[in-house]
Specification:
About 40% of the residues lie in helices and about 10% in strands. The chain is of the alpha+beta class and about 90 residues long.
Length: about 90
């Protein structure tokens, strides 16, 4: 399956990455990490081993909002890359 990409402004991606850095400092995100659960594989990890993943990736037009970011283990985050959830489900 070939992923579909719309052109995304590089400046918009930079802005969203800055928002992600700010969101990582919030109590909301720290509580999500404290649960220690990867959104994709459901396994438990120490919070420091989880990363922030955008469900709709920034390069696909996703935004850094509470509804679009989830904790993910590094393995799942690296495998998912720029895929949408429907593409991720079909891939794994």
């Amino acid at each position: 399956m070939q992923p579909f990409f719309l052109p995304v402004d590089e400046a918009a991606i930079v802005r969203e990455r800055h928002k992600a850095r700010d969101l990582r400092q919030t109590q909301w995100w720290k509580r999500k990490l404290a649960k220690g659960i990867c959104h994709y594989c459901g396994k438990l990890y120490p919070p420091r081993e989880l990363t922030m993943d955008h469900i709709v990736p920034l390069v696909r037009g996703g935004k850094t909002t509470k509804g679009n970011v989830v904790p993910a283990c590094k393995e799942c985050n690296n495998k998912k890359k720029y895929l949408l959830l429907i593409e991720w489900d079909a891939w794994r």
